[in-house]
Amino acid sequence: METPKFREFISEAKEESYRLVILSHDDAEDPNKTGDLIREKAKKLGIECILGEFVGAYTSYDIKNDELYINTFPVEKGGAVAQPDPKKEMKYDKPFKLNPENTIIMSRGLGTPGVSGNKSWYDMIKDFEHRGFTVINTNKCHDICSDKVMNQIIFDRHDINSPKTVRIYHSEGSEKALEELDSKFPIILKTGTGSRGVGVILVESAASLQSIVQLLYRENEFIDIILQEQIKTDYDVRVIICGDEVVGVMKRPIVEGDFRSNVSQGSDPVPHKLTELEKEESLAAARAVGGIVVGVDFIPAKNREKDRPYFIEVNSTPGLIGIEEALKSDGSIVEKILKKLQDRSLWANA
Questions:
Q1: Largest Cα–Cα distance of the chain, in whole Å?
Q2: What domains can you pick out in the chain, each with its CATH number?
Q3: The whole model's pTM is what?
Q4: CA–CA distance from 221 to each of 6, 141, 179, 197, 201 (Å)?
Q5: Sheet arrangement for strand 270-271
Q6: Which 3 state secondary structure label does DSSP give 269?
Q7: pLDDT tens profile 274-332
Q8: I need a surface site. Which of 85, 126, 135, 247 has the fewest CB within 10 A?
């Protein structure tokens, strides 16, 4: 039988200090405020940390000392970063040394290659994974979570309960999709990519659906569109999961005059307590996408104790500003995550 002292030794050995690289992109539609918050909390905990901008970022290698470095533009307090200007010399932060044994790479704002992000950003993260770094979250996880079609495929594959969902196959495919969905109006239309509630539309009739679909395809012939039954509710739930632990839960009331509950759309979140069933199902959804730190969104069942909730999506780069504020009376969610990441069993090279 293990003695208490031996168990404490094993626990301490697993939890070691680490260094943190946050790579993100400051965009007018998605400012890098969460990255700045994580940097602030990391420094408070004594974690050596750099917040870098994907634009202009590159790695360099010191052959003599066998050392790898990341080079990025400096990110100001608040998340803003100066953009390249032909009239000014762009200054880089001091190179930050990287080692897969003690450095975590947190990838935020990766975007869709060629659409809302550079392919080279994606390739850089892929290279970090190849070198054995712990990346939060991996490109595979990002691919699943940033694509609502793939997210649904993974939900179906792992028996994660969700609203009835069908894909529209082409610009004139709304009638067939409606037959497959077999749901009363209003229904929910979602574009394959989109975040913060953008690209989600409440559709009231078959005629308006056809018009919306044709317009979307006219703007982008390669767009992916899904339809979902509307599960009527007064609120949905955001669960922040780190590893195998629920670190924060908030209830997001539906915005007045809207059907969405995103904090970015004006929802005023409050703390929330999960049932055991909701907790188990949320952890299963996080495991399904292979994420280390994720945000899981669901609509509660009417009988929360007995019936499974309806999962909407898993977010691989959840915003933490809203939940940090909503749960501040229970301590910092970000600090809980950063402390949890000391557990080396969560690392890629564990």
A1: 71
A2: 4-136 (3.40.50), 164-229 (3.30.1490.20), 235-346 (3.30.470.20)
A3: 0.90
A4: 62, 26, 23, 22, 19
A5: 270-271, 245-253, 235-242, 293-299, 310-315
A6: coil
A7: 999 999 999 999 999 999 999 999 999 999 999 999 999 999 999 999 999 999 999 99
A8: 85
